[in-house]
Amino acid sequence: MVTISTEFSAEQHGFRFPNRFPFAFPTRYALPYAGEVALQDVLPGMAGGVCYTALDYFLAGQNVPRAARTEDLSERLLTYIAERHLDSLSLANVFQIIEWSMLDAGEIAARASRLEIPRLRRWLRRGTPAAIVIARRAGMNSSLQNTVAVALRMDITGGGRRVDIALYDPDHPGETLTLTMRRRRGAGRIAFSESSGEVAHGFFLLPYAPRDLPPELRTTLAEAVAFGARETLPFVLQWPVDSRRINQEFNVNPQFYRPFGLPGHEGLDLYANTGASVYAAADGDVIAAGAPKNHPYGLHVRITHRAGDTTYHTIYGHLSKIFVAAGQAVRAGQAIGLADNTGNSFGSHLHFTLKIDGETTPGFPPGIVDPLPFLSVSAILPMPVALPPDSGIRVFTLRDINLRAGAGTETDILTGLPSGETLSVLGDAATARGKIGVQDAWLQVLTANGTPGWVAAWFVQDAAQAFPPSDLVVYPDDSLNLRAGPGTAFAVVAKMEPTTALTVLGDGGIARQKLGKGGEWLQVQSAEGERGFVAAWFVHTTGEAAPASGLTVSVPVQLNIRARPSTEANILTVAVPGDSLAVLGERDAATARIGVEGQWLQVQTKDGFCGWAAAWLVSIAPGEHSAPPSPAAGGLTVYPIDGINVRAQPSVGSPRLFGALRGEALAVLETDLVAARKKVGQAEQWVFVENAQGQRGWAAAWFLGLERPG
């Protein structure tokens, strides 16, 4: 059984009063072409507001009031719950609830299984409980009402044939209910049930954004909630970038990392545009800062930290500039560099690795663990500052912009913010709302990481009045048309290049289900603020490659496979004469590049490495199968003078692929054997080799000899 849990407890963190209030919720919405709807008919009582408020208390580390009746609640808390209920019933959410209510029970169950269970699993893995709508109503003739609950744990058994979701349901205070999905064998049927005995056809996630509790609703420090697992963590890390968008989670995409000797991604990829500030996640000492040749992380910084008896290390990869040096002490929140795309990277982001001395994660090198549970749930200000109150308005950036120290372009730049980044606006709400979109007006804001500053109001848009950005960022597989609508019949708005980060607009969970599927389209926003639609089958996230084109090319000469389409990019591996390479991406476009100087192909080797090959150095394979790889004529064999690690790239920082024993014969797979022979025994030189089992990799030349050691 696989269990994904949070520290939320229905008994401790849920309210004790039932979801019955002494008044009817008064708000009504006018629906386009469909009259109007009373919100009290959409959800019972104020279930959405109760769940949102419970989550607000939980994330603030506060006890909920222990009143057992709604009549005993303060007027201020009743008003707050009502406000949060309105937040939960935005027009977009009401439309989604109505849409699901019109489906039949089978379609609701299928959607929940296919779309919502993977979304909930990703959400809970972050350690945060989720608000969900339980779909009780199926079809227009049903008299049942849907409701809102908090999902706090997921148990997966039978390879996903059964999923149990632990709930706090405001209609059943003080209890932990269970929503169960069963996938019946043979018939292919999916069924949901709830332990309360009430009808449940499925569920979907309800968008939730935390709100700061007003001071009068907070408990004293002595009454603060004890967060079991959070308190047992030996340390908490500050987010190392201003964005909270995760491009790639820990231990995912095993097919991409298997060639490097890893079971999956060994850290987190956090979205950061080129030039965005990167911060130290905790106080510590810099132990390395630089860019060793061919290192997968490119320009990177390593910091060692101590918390009591625990020693741990953080790594910040793919930087363009570093502000610190080895031996320097740093403070949490201190800028240590700028994000970019160096090393084994294809699209600007920050790679963040956490290593804890004495800890292990199966399959990974010693010490490597998932950083996500250690990252702070709440924002951490870099220094105590007096700020205006939160206006309650959320805006998002329409393009890459600067966060400045004051209201004007003459003030200092604090950091760069990516397109599609959500910001909290500070100050008077009416005044701030009047500035949004106005040329030469400025807004004081707070980033998701808690960094305050000012942004140009004409480069942001109110998130409550627009199709907002999701947490999903994608990159084109190749040069890609941005179109005015979801189809090839729509006009081309712009051309997107492979390294262009595109923020997906709308629901990120649904968008993830479209990735790689023909005929599906994604609405996106570029770093320059251009909006439109791209083909979902021609984009990918970090750690993923383009789909196979069905085209195979042969390699007539020794060929470097690189991390990006550039002769300056890292060498991932080497293809030798006789190798065949599977071409990735769009077949016709790839075919047109073959043999053309300056053009590149995205390819996959037989060992599973995905990278870029010079298109002018390959040719279309004569058949489906090419001749087996063979070293250059005459051959050259080398022998380790001691036990060595053979690595994925010519760098001591590259992952270990396999080991070679002292005296083990290794065939050199380089075209120029004279040059290879001269490298043997030389420091800082590497030789590409193959063992008797057909495993390939790079061996340190200074540990090799031309004769078998005695």
Shape: globular
Poorly predicted sequence stretches spanning 5 or more consecutive residues:
220-231, 379-384, 624-633
Helix content: 10-25%
What is the CA–CA distance across the termini?
52 Å
Strand content: 25-35%
Indicate the mean pLDDT.
85
Task: Report on this structure.
The protein is α+β, with helices and mostly antiparallel strands and 710 residues long. The protein has eleven helices and 47 strands. Strands 10, 11, 12, 13, 14, 15, 16, 17, 18 and 19 form a ten-stranded antiparallel β-sheet that branches. A hairpin with a 5-residue loop joins strand 31 (521-525) and strand 32 (531-535). Helix 2 crosses helix 3. The two termini are 52 Å apart. Mean pLDDT is 85; it is low at 220-231, 379-384 and 624-633.
List its traits.
single chain, 710 residues, alpha+beta, 10-stranded antiparallel sheet, 11 helices, 47 strands
Helices and strands, with pairings:
Layout: E1 2-5, H1 10-13, E2 28-30, E3 36-38, H2 47-59, H3 75-88, H4 91-101, H5 105-125, E4 130-135, E5 147-157, E6 162-168, E7 177-183, E8 190-194, E9 202-205, H6 228-232, E10 246-248, H7 254-257, E11 268-271, E12 277-279, E13 284-290, E14 299-307, E15 310-322, E16 329-330, E17 335-339, E18 349-356, E19 368-369, E20 390-397, E21 401-404, E22 413-417, E23 422-426, H8 429-435, E24 442-446, E25 452-456, E26 460-462, E27 469-476, E28 480-483, E29 492-496, E30 502-505, H9 508-514, E31 521-525, E32 531-535, E33 539-540, E34 548-554, E35 559-562, E36 571-575, E37 580-584, H10 587-593, E38 600-604, E39 610-614, E40 619-620, E41 637-640, E42 644-647, E43 656-660, E44 666-668, H11 673-679, E45 686-690, E46 696-700, E47 704-705
Antiparallel strand pairs: 1-5, 2-3, 4-5, 4-9, 5-6, 6-7, 7-8, 10-11, 11-18, 12-17, 13-14, 13-16, 14-15, 15-17, 15-18, 18-19, 20-23, 20-26, 21-22, 23-24, 24-25, 27-30, 27-33, 28-29, 30-31, 31-32, 34-37, 34-40, 35-36, 37-38, 38-39, 41-44, 41-47, 42-43, 44-45, 45-46
